[in-house]
């Protein structure tokens, strides 16, 4: 039989263990890099450089520090898992090889959006890219905006040619 003091200590220790497990924050490892680009006629493109395994789809959401205020504005599933290499698709219209699971909602000025890639089973993800409409409007065809991590761990948004994106995006993954 446990004494009341022993029972309280056990319950307290169990509660602390549950709290630590709940807040320890396991994250899904990155195996791809998400980016955005535009077509010659101004359509927004999702760009995904898969570095090794696979990515099944992508989601665009309103970026907010409060997770409860992050609103999905578009979501796409690839007809077949994306494997190592580059994939692009239009975000605002049907794209061959992709199904819009949530069609793109109208984007608004002064709002920050984030695009990331995922797998159905949460084994892999793509590093995300954040942007505003002003960032999109500065893009020219053949260029990709993505978040880059420097050798010292600093993260920043950069715009590079599609060739440079293909050649260098996976370096720090």
Write a short abstract of this structure.
This protein has 173 residues and is of the alpha+beta class.
Q: Main attributes?
A:
173 residues; six-stranded mixed β-sheet; globular; disordered N terminus
Task: Give the helix/strand layout.
Elements: H1 4-23, E1 30-38, E2 44-50, E3 55-62, E4 72-82, E5 85-90, E6 98-102, E7 113-118, E8 125-127, E9 129-131, H2 133-138, E10 143-149, E11 155-161, H3 162-168
Structure description:
By secondary structure, this protein is an alpha+beta fold. 19% of the residues lie in helices and 42% in strands. It has three helices and eleven strands; from the N terminus they run αβββββββββαββα. Strands 1, 2, 5, 8, 10 and 11 form a six-stranded mixed β-sheet that branches. The chain has a five-stranded antiparallel β-sheet with strand order 6-4-3-7-9. The longest helix is centred in the N-terminal third of the chain and has 20 residues, at 4-23. The protein starts with a helix and ends in a 5-residue tail after the last helix. Mean pLDDT is 85; it is low at 1-24.
């Amino acid at each position: 039989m446990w004494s009341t003091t022993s029972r309280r200590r056990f319950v307290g220790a169990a509660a602390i263990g549950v709290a630590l497990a709940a807040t320890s924050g396991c994250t899904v490892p990155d195996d791809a890099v998400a980016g955005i680009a535009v077509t010659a006629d101004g359509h927004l493109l999702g760009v995904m450089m898969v570095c090794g395994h696979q990515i099944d789809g992508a989601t665009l959401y309103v970026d907010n520090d409060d997770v409860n205020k992050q609103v999905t504005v578009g979501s796409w599933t690839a007809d077949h898992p994306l494997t190592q290499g580059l994939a692009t698709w239009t975000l605002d219209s049907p794209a061959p090889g992709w199904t819009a699971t949530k069609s793109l909602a109208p984007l608004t000025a002064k709002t920050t959006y984030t695009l990331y890639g995922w797998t159905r089973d949460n084994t892999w993800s793509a590093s995300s890219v954040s942007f505003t409409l002003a960032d999109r409007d500065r893009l020219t065809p053949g260029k990709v905006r993505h978040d880059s991590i420097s050798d010292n761990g600093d993260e920043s948004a950069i715009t590079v040619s599609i060739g440079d994106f293909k050649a260098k995006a996976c370096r720090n993954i």
